Each structure stands twice: as structure tokens, then as C-alpha cells.
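Reviewer 2 asked us to include a model.

Predict the structure of this chain.
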Amino acid sequence: MTCHNCRTEMTRHGKRRDGTPRFRCSQCGKTFSQPKQYGVIGHKQIDEDRALLALTLIVEGNSIRSAARITGLEKRTIMKLVVDAGQRCEALLDTRIQNVPVSDVQADEIWGFVGKKEGHKNPFEGDDMYLGDAWCFIGIERHSKLVLCFELGKRTETSAGRFMKKLAAATNPGQRFQLTTDGLPAYPFAVGNHLGDRVDYAQLIKVYAQTPEGERRYSPPEVVSAESKPVSGDPDMQRICTSHIERQNGSLRQWCKRLTRLTYAFSKKWENLKAALALHFAYYNFCRIHRTIKATPAMAAGLAEDRWTLAGLLAAA
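Predicted model (C-alpha cells):
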């Protein structure tokens, strides 16, 4: 180690209370501590292995309290780890998933809530955009199963526009592809504004049955028929499908505890939900082997040569 002041070699000069070695310059007499390495997690006081175990438990569908009981870490510490890792993973997704060649993209939105459901908000909370219903817009490539982008917001044209802007950046601008969404009225304007000249766009509109006793609270209504509606371009009627993105939504509810129904694990803060979703999608794309394609979606899309570990994912982020 060299002196920061006179650039000469220093000699050992004991240790600090935490065991960090100290060095003393023989020329100017100044002492310095060796910089401490904190690993891929970057936390000063948490053991690296326990922090990785806590994050592994979170991405495998455990709740915050469950991970706290298993690892012995404090609940707030794990939440801080999730937020930090999620923000890093969101930046990784934005930089790594760009200009991806695609041929068939499906998009859908999945419902969740932050703090309380929309109908339970009091009049003073009506204008709070970060409380109540939270819709996650997701775009997936049909063949590689790669999650191209996601956007957390309300079920509005504004959120749909931000989502389509991300989808435009994630896909190759020189390649035309087919896009299928559900019948949300906010989609056509957003698609035309950001992807109008690049996609063959169609909507799959499902018609649900009306039961005599009304829709039950937690049971989905029966699908009577599905109407394929071309919107723009020349979409192939045989490829109009949303089954793959809806199956991915099922995996999301299973592996991201904050979206599991009828639990106390829902997010209490908007940033926590967004970070947990980013961590889940990054882990899904780069670390988890998809049983259908026998590889990670990133490998199938040509974005990675092999499967990443969670530590490798955080190091790359």
C-alpha cells in the first residue's frame, strides 16, 4: 500500500477495533486504514452469505418475515436489501435489454395494491397515486420467454404510454414484429404513438359469462368466447394469443410474495413493490431455468452465455 500524500511504500501499523489493518508512512508519518471490501451486496454490517440467502428466499416466493426467521436478520434490514437490489436490477434491465430481436410479443397487466385496495381509500387519500391499486404492465417475447420490460402504475393511458415507450427501447427498431394485448382501451393509442410503424398489432378480447348469483369474490368468471381484433398493420390471425403472458402472470403471483392473494405480504410502500418486481424479473430472466426452453430466457434471447447466479446478477448490476 502506498501513501496518499507522498506516494511512498507504507509499513504495517497495527489494526483498528474492527480488525482492519492500518499502515504508517515512514516519510511523512501519516497513518491510513486499508479500504474494506463489502462484496456484491455492498452492506457494511451484514454478512454476505446471510444477505444472499435472504434475497434468495425472497425471489423464491418467501415473505419478508419468513426470510427474517430463517436468516436471523431484522425485517427492516431485509426490506432495505430488497429495495437496494431491486433498484440495481431495474438499472440492469434497462441497460441490458435493449434492441433485442423479437418476432412475437405479448403484453398484459396484472393487478396488485399498495397499503390498501382502491375501494378502501378514504376521501383524503383519493389523489394519492402511490396508494391503492397498482397495475404492473408486462411485455414478454413468446419464444424466448424473455420479459422485455415492465411498468408499474395505474391502469391508464399514461401508464400504458410509458410501458410502450420502454417496449420500443427494448426491441430492435429495424425488425417488425407482431404484438398482442388484451382489450384495454388505453393500448391502441399508446401502441400507435410509440410502435405504430414497427408492429402488426392485434387485441384478444375475452367475453365473460354473467352468472345468476353474480361474480364471486375470488373466483374468476367463465370465459365464454375470445374475439381476435386486428388493430393496425397486418397481424397473423393464427398468432393472436395472450396465453404465454397470462401463464407468466401466474408464475409472478407464485414467486413474488407481494402479489400472492389473500395474504398480509402486500406492499406497504410503492418503491418496495417496484423494487421487488425488478428483482423478480431480473432473476427470472438471467438466473432461473425455464422448464419449457431448458435455459434461462436471457440465454434463449442471446443476452447471456450461461446461467447467472444471484451473486453474479447483483455484481453485474
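The chain has two domains: 1-36, 48-316. Strands lie at 10-15, 21-25, 31-33, 104-114, 132-141, 147-153, 177-181, 199-208, 223-232. We have added this to the supplementary material.
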